[in-house]
Design brief:
238 residues; alpha+beta; Pnp Oxidase, Chain A; 2 domains; seven-stranded antiparallel β-sheet; globular
Length: 238
Amino acid sequence: MTWAGFVLGTGRVTTALWITLPPAVTIEAALALLRRADRARGRRSPSWSARLRQEGVILLSGGVMMLAGYAAAAVSWFLALPLVVLGGFVAGAALVAGDTDRKRRLVRGSERWLVNPPTRAALGLGVPMPLVLLETTGRRSGRRRRTPVMNGIVGRELWIVAEHGLRAGYVRNLIAEPRVRVKRGRRWTEGTAEVLAQDDPLARTTWIADRLGRGKWLGLVATRLFCVEPVTVRVDLS
């Protein structure tokens, strides 16, 4: 849709309309598959009004992304990027529809296949980012597993708010084997991890932002948008 908006911004209206067809068909197919999966799990089918609301939110998301492409052609990509992110959030909210299990699968799938591979490669090369690499030992395979997490290093401790809680693979790994490694920049540091089950993840998010001079609202919004039953993890760095 962003590309269609870009083409529309250059004045090629007919081409832009043709470009919108593949994503529209793909979105409808995705919604149909989600409804099919819900039926297989024994969940009630949504009412026609609920389906219309979902379709309307998806249409709104597509409009935002098309506007982003138009802004890129007319002004600059710097203006388009926030609109693309906003459109993604709106689309995600429509697909989740208050279902925590679906939210977990959606976030986990996008991170596993889209976000984490390039981020992990960049951190491995030492590219400066507000993230660190957490290396755990696979609880079943025994192999090293590396996961990008937010840089919450305060003093000699790394604080992590694990968005998927005890269902996160790296959290289950560090529970089985607390000895971990953390890469910040080009340097690896060994540490011992512990899950703080009684800690408040939202309060900890604010505390980390205070200590590191970050904006509180951004962290809280991200936590509420992406997290499902989050837990706090503390890594004591050696």
